[in-house]
Fold:
Amino acid sequence: MGVTLREIVHDYGSGTASGKAVRAVQVGGPLGAYFPTSMLDTPLDYESMAARGGILGHGGIVVFDETVDMARMARYAMEFCAIESCGKCTPCRIGSIRGAEVIDDIINRRRVRESLEVLRDLCDTMKFGSLCLLGGLTPLPVLSALKFFPEDFGLTTADVDFIMQDLTISISGTGNTNEIARR
Ligand code: SF4
Structure:
């Protein structure tokens, strides 16, 4: 506890498996937030992760090199939720399937602005309407990927700011000031 992500990734982990540059780090498991390299000085402890919108979760850390497509990783979070869903509540059971579909729409430039609005509302509903943390945490990797890697979705920072401004859950700030919080 307390060592930074940078120390873990570079000193203990020797960077990426491929030897290529680090682009993103996911902390806490498949539903943890994605951190950009600008946030690697974040200490690995409960409070620091929470203050930056992340979770410590089960402590798993996955390092992605510069070839990663973060839009695909966001879609994967929805797919993971759909596969693992027990089906008891609608936000998780149906929301995860619709989430993968709407991310496909954004990636393929179909009704982008409308699709972003749907994704925003969907993440909000999943976060606060799911009965357990499978559905409740799935927006975390989706929204952090959108916030920090908008270019992988074919989006600009302004596009992302458009959806973030009306989220009940919001990701605000950049670099070391990222925060996901209830407004
Ligand atoms: S959020 Fe939890 S309870 Fe609801 S469908 Fe998903 S796994 Fe089941």
About this structure: Residues 170-183 have pLDDT under 50 and may be disordered. The longest helix spans residues 112-129. The chain has two domains: 5-65, 70-179.
